[in-house]
Design goal:
Elements (H helix, E strand, L loop, with lengths): L1 H18 L2 E13 L11 E16 L2 E12 L10 E2 L10 E12 L2 E8 L18 E2 L7 E2 L2 E9 L4 E7 L8
Parallel strand pairs: 4-5
Antiparallel strand pairs: 1-2, 2-3, 3-5, 5-6, 6-9, 7-8, 9-10
Length: 178
Amino acid sequence: MDRLAWALLPALLCLPALAQNFNQRGFLESDLSLYPQTAPNDSSHAIDDSLFRYEASYKALPWLRFAGSFDARFDTHEEVERTAHLDWQDRSLQRPALSLREFNATITKDKLTAEFGKQFIRWGKADILNPTDRFAPRDFLAVTDPDFLAVLAARVIYDTGTDSFDFVWQTPAKLLKL
């Protein structure tokens, strides 16, 4: 028994170092709106919109990282689909109940970074308004607080330290099936 414990000791000491390559986070958010009166076309006094988001990333090699995020939604007023299928395209009139929000691979080598997969493309760096950020598609189901949508794209960035050059190839943004 002692020999087995001594043989497994190096493996057990290495496990915490391997675990540092995996990161995860998530949250559960529920928005409840209460109304004292009903409307002619809506007899309810309450509206609820719930979102569970899980994000994970894994650094497989010093130069290779995989990242993804998943959304699960539910609401009381059928703005979210009622079917249990995993949506990854964001192309429906209703928000999907289960959605692959983002999934990509990032390759980094010195000043060059390449990212492939479903990702958020954000342009420009400014404090308040980015005039060049008009290429990022948004979900305007909630007009007052639109969410950004990820697109299937390949992005290559060459960063010199003071300047960066971005090259992006992306598929069309959210197109509705009517």
